[in-house]
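Lab meeting prep.
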Amino acid sequence: MRALVQRVTTAKVEIQGEVSGEIQQGMLVLLGVERNDNKAAADKLLKKLLAYRIFADDEGKMNLSVSDIEGGVLLVSQFTLAADTRKGLRPGFSTAAAPADAQVLYDYMVGQCQDAHTGHVATGQFGADMQVSLVNDGPVTFLLES
């Protein structure tokens, strides 16, 4: 499981011109599910996401997590993060989870995040053609893997 995490001042997802999910300060998490991922991997990644220290403290150092600041979390399924890009000029998707399996884990991750996080949790829609807008704060971007 891969999560591309961006620290944002604002982010939103639109589907056919309608806002599906929106947050203010927090993190945009683009989530890619791979073939061998499971609920244990999702739990491990979520624990890390909510505790990962990417927000500035009073001294300007990245010492605070999204949980510490009670920031928003926008979770968006991102199939292409599971691509194998090691060879050639076209990505391969043999390492990606089957859509039905990926959706189960994405939905599980969303539910677990809603249960565990005190801040606002918003989502895209699994499998939809989405337009994602954000203001990356920093810019700060990390790739986390479980």
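Slide two material, second protein:
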Amino acid sequence: MADLRLERDFPVSPETLFAWISDGPRLLQWWGPEGMHVPEHDLDFSRTGPWFSVMENGEGQRFKVSGQVTHVKPPVSVGFTWAWHDENDKRGDESHVTFTVEATDSGARLVLDHRDLGDDEIGRSHEKGWTSSLRKLVAALG
């Protein structure tokens, strides 16, 4: 099983960063790789329970992912399950994501852990997607 860990530092307080990784309207500003928009969603990581998002690229291709928010510990961490849906809306293999916020001397650090991704190719694909999404978060908070 491939696991992914990414870290980014931000010039904001841990509380502000936590809001950007848990609050639905803020999440929508950076959720999904560059070039994607989110026309359908139930993105709210401020509470436990189900979530989903449909990301759409410029060619109209749609990609649905869903899961359960498993824990919310403000302003430290949010955890949620993650599974892509196929063209028949059937969920695939489930993995788990944790966003952890740490205080730094200059603000806050986001640690993104995505576990149980399957093989290395799936891990590389998720690394590319999360890296792109995090660039959007950096731009929003920079």
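Talking points for slide two:
Residues 31 and 124 are 18 Å apart (CA to CA).
The longest helix spans residues 120-141.
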